[in-house]
Request: fold
Amino acid sequence: MGRVAVVTGGTRGIGEAICVELKNMGHQVVANYGGNDQAAKEFTDRTGIPAFKFDVGDYDAVEAGLKQIESDFGPIDILVNNAGITRDGVLAKMNCDNWNAVLDTNLKSCYNTCHTLVPGMRDRKFGRIINISSVNGQAGQYGQVNYTAAKAGILGFTKALALETAKYGITVNAIAPGYVDTEMVRAVPADVLEKIVRRIPVGRLGNTGDISRAAGFLADEQNSFITGATLSINGGQFMAN
Ligand code: NDP
Reply:
């Protein structure tokens, strides 16, 4: 059955692949993005999927954006919290703006979207929420206290919300990708990236399909017994329990 699915940060990288996966499953997919209108236009031209601009870190903007999507397309039953940014630096050199931006975009965004959409999902007794964390939220990463805190926070958020929503037919799960070949990772200096790849047992970066297929699996209506789980997809780089 086709449902309305929203993917935050859906216009590029992992988010785009998830949008396409969900569309291929027969869902009406809507992407969100933060500010890159050109990338969003190219995405919509490529995929036929509409894109809505709002800042996932801003509660009022999220509420207005999601209400607009519901009025245009119908109730949102599948939510993928994928939008994310990095602002790296060791703690001593990290200013408040870089802390706040990363926490707001990566973690507060999950509160903003879920607080807006969970009441409707509860009423309809169905929901699939997938939160994109990171291996760095599981293992920790030098120079990323902000990103690591946000991505670890997503894992706790996922488990707590899974408990709160389980009896309403809503599942809440996290995916923790390892290093995936997107613009975010292409921004890492080549010598650092080479060292990272050497630490990945399968010997390569992930590709966006490695993550989007898992998101499709977790969004599947049949998979109603998987909730509060974290799916680590990292080529064996880190084996979290
Ligand atoms: P990209 O940088 O390729 O794309 C990020 C997307 O998020 C874009 O669509 C961007 O929109 C959107 N976005 C950024 N800030 C906001 C905002 N404030 N409001 C709304 N949308 C926003 O990212 P990736 O595909 O690499 O990463 C996707 C997710 O996966 C992130 O949460 C990331 O942390 C996580 N992840 C990525 C890994 C990797 O190796 N790539 C590894 C582990 C986790 P716009 O184009 O307008 O800027």
